[in-house]
Amino acid sequence: MDFSKYFLMKEADVIEYAKVKVPQKNWDEPTMTCKEIGDGNLNYVFKVQDAKGHSVIVKQAGVELRISKDMHIDTDRNRVESEILILQGKLAPGYVPEIYCYDTTMCTCCMQDCSDHEIMRTAMLEHKCFPKFADQISTFMAQVLMGTTDAVMDHQEKKKLQKSFINPQLCDITEALVYTEPYNDEMHRNNVFAPNAEFVKEYLYNNDPLKLEVAKLKMDFMTNAQSLIHGDLHTGSIFINEESTIVFDPEFCFYGPMGYDIGNVIANIIFAWCNGDVAGNKEFCDWTESVIMDVINMTKAKLDQYFEEHVTDTMCKTPGYKEYYLGTILADTAGVTGLELIRRTVGMANVKDLTTIKDEKKRARAEKICIMAAIDFIMNRADKHCGKCFLNTLKDAVKAVDAL
Ligand code: SR1
Ligand code: MG
């Protein structure tokens, strides 16, 4: 088996692959095992290990997506993901898995096994708290996002990166699933929780003022080549433990508005809050509320500091520009928080934080809270400039839904 021609690997193939591609692990070959551990929508993820404690994660892009056999995207996404992880590892050391190798024939990469961490969404579904998360994710975002802007980078180098990470097919998915279908169900693949069908019709499908703002945000997503963003920074793309945060799965990366990443983090913490709220877990909800505020405040402060220390563009040094720039980033963040809340609630790709709520009435209320908060985040995004403003948006939505 020389892996010189693409085929979709099974577990036994992956063992052979790891022997060939990651020999530095000094595998104990007779005890090597492999298990497919992926539960994402797109790729196949395997863990290979041996009895002597060596291990590696092998990720392969399939031609058909796991979420739907009708959807096909270029398997080059595996190269894009590998290269951005290498770059992010330089900008924010320790915050992404180490890439040992990647292979554009098999569309496969081999990376650090982060099994001493948990997937953050899974851990939060058990209502676990991670006190260092806000500080760590804000450091990661500030360094990677501000570090790849025109304000900081040599403009020619930035354009080379922009070209190398152009990602039309993955962006196309986001443009459809985040920025279009939740507002009209034009592809008839939205998953609307039946008890909320009328509510969704009234507040989303028949809401032209909202659609106007979403249209503006969509065009901004498609044209604002501000930063090299992760593009799918939800809690299923984060490994976490008490001590560290590792961001993975950046295959949707491209040069876009940095508020897209920050807003995704906030929205997914709100989903976790909803799950904790339904369970009546005050300690967990208090922690998620502090995360919402801290992620906003810390990210804003660290972006500001990074800009101060690293800005190179002469015109961006003009007094007042930094404040203007940070203001647009916070408004984009609020807008995207709303978009992610809506699309994960009514769109094609949902989140377990909501779908696993068993009590029908409680789930309907939680989903309405997400939609109400989202509308406020989108419509009033220019006013959301601090952590408290973000938290108040959630609290106001709770009151509004309970008053319906
Ligand atoms: C067709 S892929 C559906 C969703 O899964 C990914 O994680 C992205 O969030 C995408 O929108
Ligand atoms: Mg993913």
What labels would you give this structure?
single chain, 404 residues, alpha+beta, Phosphorylase Kinase, domain 1, Aminoglycoside 3'-phosphotransferase, Chain: A, domain 2, 2 domains, 14 helices, globular, binds 5-S-methyl-5-thio-alpha-D-ribofuranose, binds magnesium ion
Q: Given this structure, which CATH class of the largest domain is correct?
A: Alpha Beta
CATH architecture of the largest domain: Alpha-Beta Complex
Number of helices: 14
Bound molecules: 5-S-methyl-5-thio-alpha-D-ribofuranose, magnesium ion
How many E strands? Answer: 10
Structural class: alpha+beta
**Shape by Cα distribution:** globular
What string gives the helices and strands in order? HEEEHEEEHHHHHHEEEEHHHHHH
CATH-defined superfamily of the largest domain: Aminoglycoside phosphotransferase (APH), C-terminal lobe
Briefly note the CATH topology name of the largest domain: Aminoglycoside 3'-phosphotransferase, Chain: A, domain 2
Order of neighbouring strands in the sheet with most strands: 1-2-3-5-4
Please bin the fraction of helical residues.
40-55%
Would you give an account of this structure?
The chain has 404 residues and is an alpha+beta fold. It has 2 domains: 101 residues, 2-Layer Sandwich (Phosphorylase Kinase, domain 1), CATH 3.30.200; 285 residues, Alpha-Beta Complex (Aminoglycoside 3'-phosphotransferase, Chain: A, domain 2), CATH 3.90.1200.10. The protein is globular. 5-S-methyl-5-thio-alpha-D-ribofuranose binds next to helix 6.
